[in-house]
Design goal:
With 581 residues, the protein is α/β, with parallel strands linked by helices. The chain has 19 helices and ten strands. It has a six-stranded mixed β-sheet with strand order 6-7-8-3-9-10, sandwiched between helices. Strand 7, helix 17 and strand 8 form a beta-alpha-beta unit. It is elongated, with a radius of gyration of 35 Å. The chain starts with a helix and ends with a helix.
Length: 581
């Protein structure tokens, strides 16, 4: 990142997140002053200690000065503890705020925006990047305050003891700072590479966990093992590089310090010989100079924290600042549903990753309180039409009208409140059966949940589970069969009791017996409700009032099952193929 970009991100962090905590930062600053003063007093106390105790052999000072030394160390320790505590809390609060804002954006973003980035990258930003920002805010800020003040007070003490030695030391100190700064830059680059590697590794692991069955059936364990091994090696190499850079500072700084102390001792010896500095002043100065190198090294490497934190903050802000294309406008009127008639007028939609439009100038009528089915080969645009109704996506062209109201001109909340969805890709949470069903209506009573499950042919198998409705079902219902998961999904949709039902091959995972029960349940559910069904098995839509035949994003024909068998070659071909199979 360029310096200008780093400054802008740091300014934004201060303006939006740090500024509100200025009171706490002021307390941490005051405590840093105490730390600096205590550190300098430790070095200064060597002056009277050497003179009064070892030269003058004053017994009073032999008791008094050790007590002051203990108090100085205690004051430094306690002040540093509370200063660190303040910035740790502050850093975590800012981390919390960033994670909350990222979560808000993800929850409000449209499906196309969310799907444009791999989930592993999101996880990496949530886990790793926010930690780097936290380090910048907490460790970086504390080091700047504490070490700057400590260095200033120690330099003042050095000048107080002997200005010639102080100038000599100040000439040597920048050399240590230059070395530390150079190492800091390398550390920053290595740390950034480590974050990228961590993100790639998180992405890979999430794919391995999600696709474990596919990996096994295609016998790609060795292939994935090699991929993961390579990703782990790359991550390990970056971590080793960070470690090497970190420890590289030790021999360089120690050697440099050796030369500096040697030069200091030689020069001090000449000053002592001519009586310009006493032994007591020498030891006090030496302690101050030795103590000063720690804040010098720390301040020289702060740039690493700043660059690293700013780069991470940039990735965080990209999620926070991402435009929410489909959002709930508070000033829009609520959707008023009467018959739930849905009309598409010249609607076109193209995915960001697609070269061709998914649907092209679609104009269809979905009659209210009746069942309409969409049929066609994969890629015909059926799912796109279904996803446009609850505004998971927004069409680039045309209008979608519900009971005379354009759906993009009514409250998004009121629109989605009127729609229930059952998809072939069942989404369940790692929670109890009951809570997964109640997700549609958190205030639902046990009797309502049971009734919904009875209609969805789910109650019988739920009663056989170890803890019945209180049974934990695991990640995405991993402890249930495909048919059981589907029936819980249907029960959830039934519980919502919405006037519009969207069914995306809702019975695809059911056995013949369960399918018959669920078909009857769906038939009862869809009475007097507008229902849009995507069906790959045409035998499931015989009772549809209208069937719309689609191909390559366009509507070919529409009619009833019997009408289309006579008038549509595409439909007849689809139907005959399924009859044969």
């Amino acid at each position: 990142m360029k310096l200008k970009e780093v400054i802008e991100i740091v300014k934004r962090l201060y303006r939006e997140y740090i500024k509100k905590y200025l009171g706490r930062i002021l307390i941490a600053l005051i405590l840093s002053v105490v730390v600096a003063g205590s550190t300098s007093s430790i070095a200064w106390l060597l002056d009277p200690a050497v003179k009064k105790i070892f030269i003058d052999q004053d017994k009073t000072y032999a008791i008094f000065i050790p007590i002051l030394v203990v108090l100085a160390f205690a004051g430094k320790g306690i002040s540093l503890y509370y200063a660190r505590l303040i910035v740790i809390v502050l850093g975590n609060r800012i981390k919390q705020a960033l994670q909350n804002r990222m979560t808000d954006n993800i929850l409000l973003s449209d499906s196309q925006t969310i799907e444009s980035k791999h989930t592993g990258k999101y996880i990496s930003t949530f886990l790793y990047d926010v930690n780097m920002v936290q380090e910048l805010v907490s460790t970086g800020m504390l080091n700047i305050m504490k070490d700057s003040l400590t260095l200033i007070t120690l330099i003042c003490l050095m000048f107080y003891q002997n200005w010639k030695l102080a100038i000599f030391s100040l000439i040597m100190m920048p050399m240590a700072a230059i070395v530390a700064k150079s190492l800091g830059k390398r550390m920053g680059k290595a740390a950034t590479a480590s974050v990228i590697s961590s993100g790639n590794f998180t992405t890979l692991i999430s794919e391995i966990l999600r696709g474990s069955k596919i990996i096994k059936i295609y016998q790609k364990e060795e292939f994935e093992k090699n991929r993961s091994s390579e990703a782990i090696k790359h991550l390990t190499d970056t971590q080793i590089k960070i470690g090497k850079v970190a420890i590289r500072a030790a021999p360089i700084m120690e050697t440099l310090t050796g030369f500096m102390i040697a030069g200091f001792i030689y020069y001090s010896g000449t000053l002592i010989a001519v009586g310009e500095i006493g032994i007591n002043n020498f030891f006090s100065f030496l302690a101050a100079m030795m103590l000063a190198y720690q804040p010098v090294r720390s301040l020289a490497t702060v740039n690493m924290l700043i660059y690293q934190g700013a780069a991470a903050g940039n990735r965080v802000f990209k999620i926070i600042d991402r435009e929410i294309k489909i959002k709930d406008e508070t000033d829009l009127p609520k959707l008023e549903v009467k018959n739930s008639n849905i009309k598409f007028e010249n609607v076109s939609f193209q995915y960001e990753t697609g070269k061709e439009r998914a649907i092209k100038n679609i104009s269809i009528d979905i009659e209210g309180e009746k069942i309409t089915a969409l049929v066609g080969h994969s890629g015909a645009g059926k799912s796109t039409i279904l996803n446009l109704i609850p505004r998971f996506y927004a069409p680039q062209k045309g209008k979608i009208i519900l009971d005379g109201q354009e759906i993009n001109k009514v409250s998004l909340k009121s629109l989605r409140n009127k729609i229930s969805l059952v998809s072939q890709d069942v989404i369940l949470f790692d929670d109890t059966v009951e809570n997964n069903i109640k997700y549609a209506n958190l205030g639902a009573k046990d009797s309502q949940i049971k009734e919904a499950c009875m209609l969805a042919a789910a109650h019988e198998f739920i009663e056989k589970l170890p803890e019945k409705y209180k049974t934990m079902i695991g990640e995405n219902g991993v402890r249930l069969s495909g048919g059981q998961k589907q029936r819980i999904s249907i029960a959830r949709a039934i519980l919502k009791n919405a006037p519009i039902i969207l069914l995306d091959e809702a019975t695809s995972s059911l056995d013949a017996e369960s399918e018959e029960k669920v078909q009857n349940a769906i038939f009862n559910l869809t009475k007097n409700r507008t229902t849009l069904v995507i069906a790959h098995r045409l035998s499931t839509i015989n009772k549809a009032h209208k069937i719309i035949v689609m191909k390559e994003g366009e509507v070919l024909q529409s009619g009833t099952h019997s009408e289309l068998l006579k008038s549509s070659k595409e439909y007849e071909s689809l139907y005959r193929k399924q009859i044969v199979h």
